[in-house]
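Weekly sync, protein design subgroup
Attendees: M.S., D.O., the rotation student, P.L. (late)

Item 1: inverse folding check
M.S. brought a backbone from last month's batch and wanted to see whether the design step gives back something sensible before we order anything. D.O. pointed out we never logged the input encoding, so this time it goes straight into the notes. Structure tokens as presented (96 positions):
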């Protein structure tokens, strides 16, 4: 029997694909439009808030372009990312 740990060291006990083989997780990069960003502090606040979410591998904030690019291990949790952006004081207006 193989290890239950995924590459990001989370437990995947019982997680199998429909075919009964191990699930392979690949990174997914998603760009979001975010309003209200104006400076380096905005970049830092959003990077910290979104970067702390489970499954987030990296966050790139383009203040001038109003874009936040999030790389996740697997499918992104849009609701959690939107909530983190909102909690930081900005508004995620949708996928870019």
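Designed sequence read out in the meeting:
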């Amino acid at each position: 029997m193989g290890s239950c740990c995924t590459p990001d060291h989370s437990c995947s006990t019982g997680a199998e694909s429909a075919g009964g083989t191990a699930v392979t997780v690949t990174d997914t990069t998603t760009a979001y439009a975010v309003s209200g960003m104006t400076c380096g502090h905005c970049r830092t606040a959003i990077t910290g808030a979104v970067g702390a979410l489970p499954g987030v591998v990296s966050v790139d904030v383009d203040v001038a372009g109003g874009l936040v690019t999030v790389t996740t291990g697997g499918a992104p949790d849009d609701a959690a990312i939107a909530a983190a952006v909102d909690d930081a004081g900005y508004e995620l207006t949708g996928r870019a």
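Discussion: The longest strand covers residues 27-35. The CA atoms of residues 47 and 62 lie 11 Å apart.
Action: P.L. to compare against the previous round before Friday.
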